[in-house]
């Protein structure tokens, strides 16, 4: 999978950080300069860390591992969802559900309950009354919002892909506690030492998030496809 060029990173606004007053000193080695009171990310560092992250992603995807795409900012939620669906991976794009990693069995039970209610709602032969159907519909709508992206997740994920670790603190805490590796976009207001594969980048602009989301999905799809090809060769 080809990595984006520096020009492509530049065009996507990956280099735009936060105001210098909001910076994290631990991002110093990834910052190129500041302009008009705003930090500018060193895109050569971005490319370097991105290569490390995608190498890990490619290796793990080829081994059949599962990743949760996490991006709960309003402007990036749909982008994250579409990218995850395109590579058949689970996602969280509204709010991180506490216990997703630290109490996975509880979350899995909630997912099963949501699926049951959804099947009940879609059953044309249902014997539920109108008031009962209304309650089920409300439960399904709530479940879709917080659990819809996790349907099909039968076991704890092997890694998280965060589109902005600063805004996903609960996910970072749970992953750290349970030993789940983290790939994350780390803006200039973020502590990159809290994640395994930090990628210094703008995590607010939709063009920036879209570039990374689509890249990660493509890496996963390519890795899975290459594995299928290799397995077919071995069977001959």
Automatic annotation (TrEMBL):
GO terms for biological process: translation. GO terms for cellular component: cytosolic small ribosomal subunit. InterPro entries: Ribosomal_uS2 (IPR001865), Ribosomal_uS2_bac/mit/plastid (IPR005706), Ribosomal_uS2_CS (IPR018130), Ribosomal_uS2_flav_dom_sf (IPR023591). GO terms for molecular function: structural constituent of ribosome. Pfam families: Ribosomal_S2. It comes from the Bacteria. Keywords: Ribonucleoprotein, Ribosomal protein. Coiled coil: none annotated. Belongs to the universal ribosomal protein uS2 family. NCBIfam families: rpsB_bact. PANTHER family: 30S RIBOSOMAL PROTEIN S2 PROKARYOTIC AND ORGANELLAR (PTHR12534), SMALL RIBOSOMAL SUBUNIT PROTEIN US2M (PTHR12534:SF0). HAMAP family: Ribosomal_uS2_B. This is Small ribosomal subunit protein uS2. It comes from Candidatus Berkelbacteria bacterium CG10_big_fil_rev_8_21_14_0_10_43_13.
């Amino acid at each position: 999978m080809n990595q984006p060029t520096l020009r492509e990173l530049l065009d996507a606004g990956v280099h735009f950080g936060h105001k210098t007053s909001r910076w994290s000193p631990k991002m110093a080695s990834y910052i190129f300069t500041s302009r008009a009171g705003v930090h500018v990310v060193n895109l050569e560092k971005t490319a370097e860390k991105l290569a490390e992250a995608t190498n890990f992603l490619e290796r793990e995807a080829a081994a059949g591992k599962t990743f949760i795409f996490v991006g709960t900012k309003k402007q990036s939620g749909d982008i994250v969802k579409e990218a995850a669906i395109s590579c058949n991976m689970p996602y969280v794009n509204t709010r991180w559900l506490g216990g997703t990693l630290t109490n996975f069995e509880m979350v899995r039970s909630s997912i099963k309950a949501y699926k049951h209610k959804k099947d009940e709602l879609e059953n044309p032969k249902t014997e539920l009354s109108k008031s009962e159907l209304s309650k089920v519909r409300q439960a399904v709508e709530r479940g879709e919002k917080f659990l819809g992206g996790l349907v099909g997740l039968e076991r704890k994920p092997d890694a998280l892909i965060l589109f902005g670790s600063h805004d996903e603190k609960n996910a970072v805490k749970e992953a750290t506690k349970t030993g789940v590796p983290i790939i994350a976009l780390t803006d200039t207001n973020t502590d990159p030492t809290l994640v395994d594969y930090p990628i210094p980048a703008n995590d607010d602009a939709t063009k920036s998030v879209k570039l990374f989301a689509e890249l990660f999905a493509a890496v996963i799809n390519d890795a899975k496809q290459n594995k299928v090809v290799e397995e077919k060769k071995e069977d001959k």
